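Notes to self, MULE transposase domain-containing protein:
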Amino acid sequence: MVFEAISMVILQPECMLIISDWHTGISNGMKSIFPDASHGFCAYHLANNLKQHCRKRGDVINLYYRATYAFRVVEFDSLMVKMKSIHSKVHDELVEVGIQKFSLVHCPRKRYHMITINIAESMNSCLLVIQKLPIISIAEFIRDLLQRWFHNHRCNARETPTFLTQDAYQHVKDRVLSS
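result:
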């Protein structure tokens, strides 16, 4: 139902990337309502699932986050090889999940350096101040807030010459020049 409502206002779903936890309802809703959109997993939620395999191995989770945020394929591959050598079960689970679901550098859409679903937490904090308003006022507030956020992201994306954000592009450029 939520995806159907969203589909009425999203004009280009083929350009959309939805980041979520592993909730199957989200995946199923996406497949039926937004079959051309991409789906990524929240790095934080994925890390929590991986911790089940390596509770006392902070080094493995550190490698996972470094791979997730890697800006170059060669850097990502190197970190994944290292991970496989120290904890093959976590490596294999990540490959099974699909590297394009969590890796910044392998994402098929512009991810704008958004790796987690902290946006949901941001939204919750914004709604605290209006929670006693009538539902129509709350709905209008949410529409306006999301419209501003998406507009700002779209404007930033149009000015971005690559699939990376300006900050990420500068970071990669600086690292390439220093090596």
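- The mean pLDDT is 80.
- DSSP finds nine helices and two strands in the chain.
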